[in-house]
Write a structure and sequence with these properties.
The chain is α+β, with helices and mostly antiparallel strands and about 160 residues long. Helix content is about 25%, strand content about 30%.
Length: about 160
């Protein structure tokens, strides 16, 4: 497996985004309508990653984008995780965990103080992954903050002083 930095609008990222949208439609009846643009993920205010298998096929993705206090519920210093996805045939290999770790490290290096994400109750495997990585429930934020199926999780990127 190789994880590469890319843009959200590059062909491999677009292909994986199309697949995750199909999965959202299967689980929720529609895709994710959260407004996003490729430049949201441009360093140093974000990062987008795609993982490739041994054959060079894109199999996983994820990104973060800087957010600050907003009417949508973000707080100053937030790094919002978006489009975490692993194709079905590559699941269970640690790809999501590897991408998430790299996203967290990048966001911390960029001075972000908290990483947050929004997922849904119909994605129990995603919730289990995030909880196993230290994420806890946070005040709801984002496009779906008023939806019953929305689950918002977060994790501090600030290291406690010794």
């Amino acid at each position: 497996m190789e994880i590469r930095r890319t843009r959200y609008d590059e062909p491999a990222a677009v292909r994986l985004n199309d697949l995750v949208q199909l999965e959202y439609t299967e689980r929720y009846g529609e895709g994710d309508a959260t407004p996003m643009a490729a430049d949201h993920f441009d360093p140093p205010q974000g990062l987008y990653l795609v993982a490739y298998d041994a054959d060079g096929e894109p199999v996983a993705s994820g990104g973060w984008r800087a957010q600050d206090a907003s009417p949508e519920g973000h707080e100053d210093g937030d790094a919002e995780i978006k489009r975490m996805f692993v194709v079905r045939q590559a699941r269970g290999r640690g790809l999501a965990r590897a991408i998430l770790a790299e996203l967290e490290a990048s966001a911390a290096a960029a001075g972000r103080t908290r990483v947050v994400l929004e997922t849904g109750l119909r994605q129990p495997e995603a919730i289990a992954l995030y909880e196993s990585c230290g994420y806890v429930p946070v005040k709801k934020f984002g496009y779906y903050r008023d939806q019953d199926l929305s689950v918002c999780l977060g994790k501090s990127l600030v290291q406690p002083r010794a």
